[in-house]
Amino acid sequence: MDPILQTCDRLGIVGTRFREEIAAQVQASVLARRGRDTVRVTGSTGTGKELVTALVHEVAREQLGRNGELVEVNCGNLPDQLFESALFGHKKGAFTGATADNKGLLERAKGGTLVLDEVQNLSVEAQGRLLRLIGEREYRPVGSTALQRTDALIVLVSNLDLVQLAGDGKFRRDLLDRAPAKIALLPLWQRREDVGELAQQFALEAAKDRGWEGFEGFTRRALADIEGAVVANEESSVRRLREMVRDAVFAAGEPAPELLESAAVEKVLADFYGANPLAERGAWDREDIEDRFDLAVEAQVVRHIAGLHGIPDATLLKLTRVLRELRDSLTAGEKPVPDSYRNLMSRTSLATKAALWVLSGANNQSEFRKFFGSKNHEMPPKSVAWQLYHDVFGDETKESN
Known about the structure:
Blueprint: H1 3-11, H2 16-31, E1 39-42, H3 49-64, E2 70-74, H4 80-88, H5 105-108, E3 113-117, H6 124-136, E4 138-139, E5 148-149, E6 153-158, H7 162-167, H8 173-177, E7 181-184, H9 192-210, H10 220-232, H11 238-251, H12 262-273, H13 281-309, H14 313-330, H15 341-360, H16 365-370, H17 382-393, H18 395-400
Parallel strand pairs: 1-6, 1-7, 2-3, 3-6
Antiparallel strand pairs: 4-5
Helix pairs in contact: 1-3, 2-3, 2-14, 9-10, 9-11, 10-12, 10-13, 11-12, 13-14, 15-17
């Protein structure tokens, strides 16, 4: 099993599609970058951002050897006047009440992960104070003249679209540009296949709280009704789904049923979404069948292509998701690039070369060649290594010549 998915198991992260998509994004944004780039995690309220930041921290600890603490800061509860002191620390006498040196949260996050939650709530001035930290990995404690460095993996978290906020002038574009690694979470209703898994998990947890034994969750009909209602009402929050399921379980009478029928969820769905929540049941069923058919066809295509090229299905899916993220990035930013075939292939080729260089850990062309073996027939030709070095480092190579 993929090591990231194993970490998902340990953290209790449920939902097959959610797990696969997050695993691919964590691979691309954390592991491939060796934890060097600031990561931004975005998703609407209740989509699992806390779980994802915990996953990022654990993956960095297990696979990159980053054994420091996970330090979380809620920027929505941090007044501007306390921001620098809390984050960067302060020297004794730096301001009224500073009776002793304070190392700050960044010091606590040394070798670990610093999560800035609700980062969109920071004032523009406070965002400016983050620029040196994120760009240069340097900061200055309040009242000190000495710069300090940090190796913390920094994660910016928001329930709003930071790109849109930057376009509206409500979030600093230069700060956004210094957080190039992205993890975007889909709302719950856009990953229908996860709804049933989550509902069953929440039902079993609630039954355990009630002390029920022999309870097996919802019938297939009841699960289909929950899934249909979540999609039809564009429910984004996993927390709300958990609340609905727990309401249904706690409302059931004694003795404990083996399974909860559709009737047990109808009133709860009505309370959440209005009268007659199952009126569109027939349309939901047709949509569900179509979705499952499309997924089955997609899975067949993936298996066929992966087989032709001798790679695992999961590897092909990960590569596809990385390519999708690259394609999306072409049209983002102040100067979007058309996502034409030529542009996409050019960017894909360059990204592949850059990733290969990072994987090799080479500092020069000779080290890059030796990464592949000690014999000439195992190494790329010198001309190929030089061209790849030139493509990856671009103008930097021209300046050094």
